[in-house]
Amino acid sequence: MRLRLPSAILGALTAAATVAATAFAPAPAAAQSRIKDIVDVEGVRENMLVGYGLVTGLNGSGDDLGDSKFTRESLIGMLQRLGVNARGEDLDTDNVAAVMVTADLPPFANQGARIDVTVSALGNAESLLGGQLLVTPLMGADGEVYAVAQGPLTVSGFSAGGAAEEVTKGVPTVGRMPNGAVVEREIDFQFNQMDSVKLSLRNPDFTTASRIADAINKFIGKPVADQLDPGTVDVDVPERFDGKTAQLITKIEQLPVDPDNQAKVVIDEKSGTIVMGEDVRIDTVAIAQGNLTIRVTETPQVSQPAPFAQAGQTEVVDRTEVDVDEDENRKMAVMPRGVSLQDLVDGLNALGVGPRDLIPILNAIKASGALHAKIEVL
User: Fold this and answer.
1) Between the CA of residue 151 and those of 93, 112, 117, 347, what are the distances in Å?
2) Nearest to 129 by CA among 54, 68, 51, 57
3) What is the pLDDT of residue 273?
4) Which of 136, 211, 260, 360 could form an S-S bond across to 51 if both were Cys, CB 3.0 to 4.6 Å?
């Protein structure tokens, strides 16, 4: 036999169950990041390449060969290698520009792969628009050639004008060449043969490094990760991943970790930008912010004799008005101990404090010992 409860009692029980479920529901997890987003892996890095070359085909916007001696000598040398003797000739072309060519060689790039290239004018060329880069070897820090670049340039800026006015948009003396260089030499690095791998934290921190090591050890099931210092975690490759180091790193990169950062206030005085972390705390302080403004206004007046006067001359008489504004309407505000970042910002905004005024206030709070954060000035 099935009992039927009155609707009022049934509603009350349902509401009570809902409240209980809400009370015992798990709290939302803290914001976490993947290990791959906060560390760099040993050996997985780019290498910078640089080269010197010539860009031809410019529409009269190239280097002045009379002023850019290196462009002239490079042009003569290039022609001689092609069997053209231009030595001693009066070269007066303005369709050539000397350029510096830079590129980043990605990790594990194979021979024949293509990489992007940036081309920058070296002389007094006005624009590289429409130019063609001639064969340019790109060298690494060891002096070896790792790639060769050649091809047409893509320039986003332009410059146009006449004798009285000139308009320039963007930077016409810098161009890009997507897939403009071919890799000629590979960097030999046997990643899968490594017995251990070091993870370098992008923001070194003892707590974060310890959490990374704990997450890896929990995933592997044995203590293979060890925190060496605030910025390095050493991982020994387990037996089941022998010769498969890349697969091990793939799995480690996806592990979630809650990174911890030092409370810091970053100030850029040039732009008046202030960035404060959420862990910034202050002790109880009283803050008063006021500006003393002195405004001096000069209003010269002309004094001249009355009409038909027998004597006198016209003179300029100085009239100076001085206005002092001590900003007396500003009041003091008390910030209680341990206030959060939001409370601090709200309290200072209530005083009418702008970003420029906030910089000396933060420095003063730090000097008093009440600000528990590191101040970093850019």
Assistant:
1) 21, 16, 10, 59
2) 57
3) 77
4) 136
Other Cβ atoms within 10 Å of 54 Cβ, number? 22
Distance, in Å, from the CA atom of 40 to the CA atom of 55, rounded to the nearest integer, reads: 37
Q: What is the CA radius of gyration of the chain?
A: 35
Residue 323 CB-half CA count within 13 A = 5
Secondary structure element (H or E) that encloses residue 189, with its range:
none
3-state SS assignment for residue 93: coil
Distance CA 355, CA 273 (A): 7
Looking at residue 340, what is its pLDDT?
62
Measured in residues, the chain has a length of 378
**Tally of CB atoms within 10 A around 7:** 8
* Secondary-structure percent of the chain, ordered helix, strand, coil, rounded to 5: 25, 35, 45
Average pLDDT per run of 10 along the chain, which is 378 residues long? Answer: 43 41 40 87 90 92 86 88 80 89 92 94 90 94 94 81 66 92 89 89 92 94 92 92 90 91 78 75 67 57 71 72 57 58 67 70 77 78
| Tokens (6 digits) for 321 | 């008005």
Q: How far apart are the first and last CA of the chain?
A: 78
Residue-range domains of the chain with CATH: 47-156+169-183 (no CATH), 191-257 (3.30.70), 265-288+329-377 (no CATH)
Residue-level pLDDT at 115: 95
Q: What pLDDT is attached to residue 102?
A: 96
Distance CA 24, CA 26 (A): 6
Q: What is the pLDDT of residue 81?
A: 87
Closest CA to 195 of 237, 241, 239: 237
Secondary structure element (H or E) that encloses residue 287, with its range: strand 285-288
With 0-12 / 13-18 / 19 or more C-beta atoms within 10 angstroms meaning exposed / middle / buried, residue 259 is buried
Q: What is the pLDDT of residue 163?
A: 59
CA distances from 133 to 95, 114, 146, 234 (A): 12, 16, 17, 45
- The answer to whether 283 touches 337, Cβ cutoff 8 Å, is yes
